[in-house]
What does this fold into?
Amino acid sequence: MSVIKAYTLPHPPLAVPEVGKGKETDIPATIAAFNEVGKEIAEIKPDTIIYITPHCTVYADYFHISPGKTANGDFGRFGAADVKLSTEYDEELALEIEYVAQQSDIPAGMLGERDKNLDHGTTVPMWYINKFYTDYKSVRISQSGMSPSEHYLLGQILTKAADNLKRKVVVIASSDLSHRLKDGGAYDFAPEGAVFDEAVTSALSKGDFLALFKIPEQVREAAGECGYSSLMILAGLFDCQNVDAKQLSYECPFGVGYAVAAFCPKNTEKSRNILEQYLEFTLEQSNKSRNLEDDYQLLARQSLEHVITTGEKLPIPNDLPRDMLDKRAGVFVSLHKNGRLRGCIGTIAPTTKNVAAEIIQNAISAGLTDNRFNCVQNDELPYISYKVDVLSPPEKISGQHELDVKRYGVIVTCANKRGLLLPNLDGVDTIEEQIDIAKNKAGISKNEEISLERFEVIRHG
It folds into this structure.
């Protein structure tokens, strides 16, 4: 195997003495682990180091590989512009990764660079590595907004590309953990922060990549992490491989979790087909949720499945509850796959003859016309779960004091721009957040005058 070793490394700029100016002494375990990793890499003498970073060019549906022959960076943003770094890119390996990704139908490549300067997700680990070893080329790859499964697949692609070229490769997964471990930092405290960090460090110390997959998305989001996807790429490097896993350090004195861990491949082990196991797990979860579907969710699912498998719109069934046939209302249908939103379309007021027709229309639209996502494909259908929100008629209110994020959804209006946000959503904890998100969806700027309406929902799912 050409990937000799992989590491998870955090990227606090204050770990660099010229930036920290003494504060680096507050993370002694992290600094010691950085130095240990640098020494190990010097002993390995890799041809190429692949840096996976959350702070370079990030796209929702594309893995960006930094193009060009060389790149430079410094710590000017952090008050130490004199600390400069440069690297030569391994163009041949970058092209091979792009080629293998295309053959595997994974969107990855060197298009769309926004900033060719090295980001701190790369420069902090690089600064410590370069203390001990500099005779290598680099590849820099960004996370994306795609699913954990697709990040894992990219890890498999990196391994295959390195094997194809017989490169001796080390991979650095740049990853801070939760930013919400205490109040007073850039983020407010969230109890999910400690839950997330404990789950990640436990999984890393055991090389239990399936456990990484199973961390719920709502926990990840609430934790305010910036590197989970880097870890999933690292996990994919070792598909069907036993690994030696070792956690070198973990500490969080500033309210941000910093973990350093090392992974070395051992022998092939077919039972370590982690992605297949995860897909089986999610299918089981999906089947369990289907057993709990009510009539509203069932109709949403049947509507999308019918149009995808037959090409025709589902007729309204005759055996539905009277409320679905006699009542008219706005309806939102949201689709979720492996814990992630897969589509959401709704109507504020009724546009069809009854709630059933509204569900059929909006379920199809959520799967096929939500421009934030690709159209749902037939092979995805077993993994998708459905939520249906039936809206009460909106009522005008005089101000945000009449809102409650758990009870009421909000509609913001400015001239001909109108945005809506449903109530009781994960990660939306304040009225201010609710209004800001609704304004952003409508393209309303922060200082524009708005009018407010509120509504309640009956949620199914």
Observations:
- The CA atoms of residues 404 and 431 lie 7 Å apart.
- The mean pLDDT is 95.
- The first strand starts at residue 3 and ends at 9.
